[in-house]
Amino acid sequence: MFDRPTIIDEAFTKRVLAGDLPTARSNQQSDIPPENHLVDLFDTQIMSRHLDLWARRSKGKTFYSIGSSGHEGTAAMALATRQDDMAFLHYRDAAFLIQRKKQQGGLTPLYDMALSFSASADDPISGGRHKVLGCAQTFVPPQTSTIASHLPKAVGAAHSIGMAHRLKLDDAVLQHDAVILCSFGDASANHSTSQGAFNAAAWAAYQHLPMPLIFLCEDNGIGISVRTPGGWIEANYSQRPALHYIQCDGVDMLDAVRGCEEAVRFARSRRKPVFLHMRTVRLMGHAGADVEASYSAMDAIEANEAQDPLLHSARILLQHAGMTQQDIVGRYEEMRQRVERVAAEALTKPRLTTKADVMMPIAPPVQGKVSPPLPTKDVRDAMFVKDARNLAKPVTLAKSINFALADLMLRYPNVALFGEDVARKGGVYGVTQGLQDKFGPARVFDTLLDEQTILGLAIGAGHNGFVPIPEIQFLAYLHNAEDQIRGEAATLSFFSNGQYRNPMVVRIAGLPYQKGFGGHFHNDNSLAVLTDIPGIIVAVPSSAADAPAMLRECVRLAHEDGRVIVFVEPIALYHTTDLLEAGDGGWTADYAAPNAAQQILLGELAVHGKGSDLAIITYGNGYYLSRQAEQELRDAGIDLRIIDLRWLHPLNEAAIVKAVASAKKILIVDECRRAGSPSEKLMTILAEAGRGNDTCRLTADDCFIALGPAAELTLPSKTSIIEAALKAVGK
Prior knowledge:
Blueprint: H1 4-18, H2 35-57, H3 75-80, E1 87-88, H4 94-104, H5 109-117, E2 133-135, E3 140-143, H6 151-167, E4 180-185, H7 192-206, E5 213-219, E6 222-223, E7 226-227, H8 232-237, E8 244-249, H9 253-270, E9 274-279, H10 298-306, H11 309-320, H12 325-346, H13 355-359, H14 377-383, H15 388-391, H16 397-411, E10 415-419, H17 435-439, E11 444-446, H18 451-463, E12 467-472, H19 483-489, H20 492-495, E13 504-510, H21 528-531, E14 537-539, H22 547-561, E15 564-570, E16 606-608, E17 614-618, H23 620-635, E18 640-644, E19 647-649, H24 653-659, E20 665-673, H25 678-688, E21 695-700, H26 718-728
Parallel strand pairs: 1-4, 4-5, 5-9, 8-9, 10-11, 10-12, 12-13, 13-15, 14-15, 17-18, 17-20, 20-21
Antiparallel strand pairs: 2-3, 6-7, 14-19, 16-18
Helix pairs in contact: 1-12, 2-4, 2-5, 2-11, 2-12, 5-12, 6-7, 6-18, 16-22, 18-19, 23-26
């Protein structure tokens, strides 16, 4: 009763030979593709089907058996699009990938898919790290089990096409008339991430910004076991402003071709977004472990099986391709044998066997890409002509970042800066003031208020040769969209075996001590969501002396190595000028033009002082407060050094241990909450280096940030640092 794969498999042959085939469900008039196209599409469909059947029957030999049966109509979209139209695929789109690979030539789609199913290290896209649909040669970045998380970057990629065309970007990957495809299921269309992407695409198109994007909704009427209300997708999306709606029947090859060609034609010619609603069916349940009969009535299951796309395709081949019933069944059986031969070969191939092999693409080595040369003095002087007076005097952290961004945008034509309020206003704290005037609205622009869209825009633009510098207005706002970094940007290199990368430098204003602001949405002292993500870099500058060189290193790493970097800027230090007393200017610094002497490399620490009694390890506001406490500690007879980590992820363990080697005692000052803070990792590093008994820590309490002076009660302060330091050395 529950062996639906065998029932579906055997039913195809029986029904074709008996002439018991379904009638067309669509009344739309379709042009008939050439016979060779019809046969080619059918071959793709049965290749995908037999791979599914093999995966379901090969328990223990294959993995992650979410299949594509019932969704074979997506092969029509591969036929309708070009090889250089980037596609972000739903996990049921094996037929699309097979068809596109076939059209590319010189590729082995069947063998490649079998390698992926069996988690072979020879899998050409993921190298055995996941069963993903992707291909570097055909503009299909790999996707894992996505629930709409790929839609924002599709919006970003589509928007970047117009950006690159306007800027005449030499590094652009996509053609100026390309379209972007992203596909997903009807259940995922309800996800907040999808809703944000639909809204962002329509928001842009409503303002006549180019958005050549096809949202392909594969509507099989169910998400695992939860039914989509009948008519919901059409009712929800057919009348949305600036989003063109098209419907087609994915089980009918002819109607699928019609709908896909219409969608591609509209998106390519109008440069506007399309919502293509493709009706499909889901066969054999959600995945191999899913017993569909436990939540669906048998008559409903059988009704879906009666609409098997392969049966519809057989009807079309009989009517329009001059094939007989025996020809169709023979072709089906030949494909079965071919899949079994190729699959058997794939199962002999090795899998990943060492952790080094598994982890290799997390932070892959340099690819040989180099940064552009520094601009000439005349060019730079012309850009800074209005800033000459400010450049001649010491600047704050905020102004140093502003100047550094200008220098970087002058040097790197592929750098684009965007976010909420960053353009005309220049950011909430004025950090990006004047940059739009210098570089224009194509490179410095405001986005709509949606952090998922901002980060998705960055990921998509990174696919098209840009080095995006998106801004998240406050650290706490990142939590609305953190999966764009965790689940999308950070994983791309890993699941593509280093073939795709997401270069970006995400600027975030954050950390506590901001005066007059309460609540966790403006003062947030938790970095844990970032510092446990493999492969990304988290940088925290504490001063105007360090920030420009650190930002330059971040952009270099993004441009040359495709790294994902988060640059957390302490809000409370943005406009701080003094260190010990009013007017001393101790927290400002001269801003110098970029040169080799200004470098701060990834993992490089700052060590202030050479004292051997106590080493204070800290960062951000903690470094500033420790420097304030320094003189009183020296007056108390403590010979100390203060270490600014600068780079919080990954921590440079060897450099940290070396920096404290000659210190008798160690105090960690951490402005993040005690649970989950960087101090926990630092304690572990030092304990493993044999310094556990010499080390103590001062952190913020496990509390949200209160309003006004009450906030300081739960945070480290100059006074509490002095007290902790005296206790650490036994005074």
